[in-house]
Amino acid sequence: MGWEALGQWGEGAVRIEPLAGGVANDVWSVRINGQIAVGRFGSRTDADLAWETELLQRLDREGMYVPVPIPTTDGRMFANGLVVMKYMEGGPPETESDWRRVAETLRELHRLTQGWPQRPGWRSSSGLLHAETGTRINLAAMPPEGVLRCRAAWARLVGRQTCVVHGNPSNPGNVRVTADRVALIDWDEAHVDVPDLDLVLPGNAADLDDGAHDIAAQASAAWEAAVCWRDEYAVKRLAEVRPV
C-alpha cells in the first residue's frame, strides 16, 4: 500500500517533505489533524513494529521524552509498515553538558527496561557469539578474521545485565535537546543488549572508567561494523576493533 496508508490517520493527513537521516526507512514530516508529526515507512514486520511502539508508549508513560506513536483513526499504532510519531522539538547536543544529559537519559532508559523481551528477529551481542544472523546483521558476509575480532569484543560483555539499548545515541542526529529536556529519536536499531553499548558518547560523557570504556568502545565498534557491513563506515569501525 505504501504511503497511501497515511489516509488511515484521517482524511486531512498529508505528507509535507522528506526528512534527512532515514537509511532503512522513508521518513517524512506529515500533518495530522493540523499538527506536524513524523511518518516513517519501511519493511519491518508487524511483530517488530509492535515491539517498538509498545516500548515508546511505555517510556512516554514513565515520563521520558520519546517520539510516541500517534494512533490511526481506529486506534492502531501502525498500519501497513507506516508509523506516525510525535514531532520532537530541539536540536542536537553540542556541549559537554548536553552530552552528560544524554548519558543521564540513557541510564533512565536502561533502568526502566530491565527484563524487557528481545525485539523480534534480533539478537544481542552475546547472542551473536554462537549465531551468524539477526535482523540487519549477517556475520557470514564479513571476513572470518573480522568476525573473530567482533566476537572477542562482545565476549567481554557476557554475563552482564541486559535492558533495551537505543542502538545509536552517539549520533547527534538521533538526539533532540532543549533547555528542559532530552529526547531520543530514531529507535530503528533499539534492541535488548548490554547497556554499555549505549554509553560510548563524545567526551566520555557517561564517565566510564578506562577499563569499562575500552570494553564498551570495542564492543560498540564491533556492533556498528556488523550492522552496517559492508559500507565504508563499517570498514572503518571494524578497523578500530583490535585483532585477537
UniProtKB/TrEMBL annotation:
<feature type="domain" description="Aminoglycoside phosphotransferase">
    <location>
        <begin position="16"/>
        <end position="214"/>
    </location>
</feature>
<protein>
    <submittedName>
        <fullName>Phosphotransferase</fullName>
    </submittedName>
</protein>
<dbReference type="InterPro" id="IPR011009">
    <property type="entry name" value="Kinase-like_dom_sf"/>
</dbReference>
<dbReference type="InterPro" id="IPR002575">
    <property type="entry name" value="Aminoglycoside_PTrfase"/>
</dbReference>
<keyword id="KW-0614">Plasmid</keyword>
<dbReference type="Pfam" id="PF01636">
    <property type="entry name" value="APH"/>
</dbReference>
